[in-house]
Design goal:
By secondary structure, the protein is α+β, with helices and mostly antiparallel strands. The protein has two helices and two strands. It has two domains: about 25 residues, no CATH class; about 60 residues. It has a two-stranded antiparallel ribbon with strand order 1-2. A hairpin with a 7-residue loop joins strand 1 and strand 2. The protein starts with a strand and ends with a helix.
Length: about 100
Amino acid sequence: MMMGWRRVGGEGGEGYWSARLDPIFHVTPFFMTPFFKARIRARVEHAFHVLKNLFHYKKVRYKGLAKNTAQLHTLFGLVNLMLAKRRLLALHAQGAS
């Protein structure tokens, strides 16, 4: 629950502002639901799944952060191309039939 500021008190300028639980905020926003978090997590982890299983990336290979970072950037670029290729081929096959 979130706090909301409300004007409490009498008429005119006699009232004061008070922090109270606001009934508007009792509904959980969509981006905080477990369903939304799981959907984002699945999208992110799919790229790591492809990286590990398709490109057989299990552990770092080089000594030095720069080389490992460069290799990861290259591999994730290739993963993005693979996933885009699959999506484009599926769209093309769907449009052809």
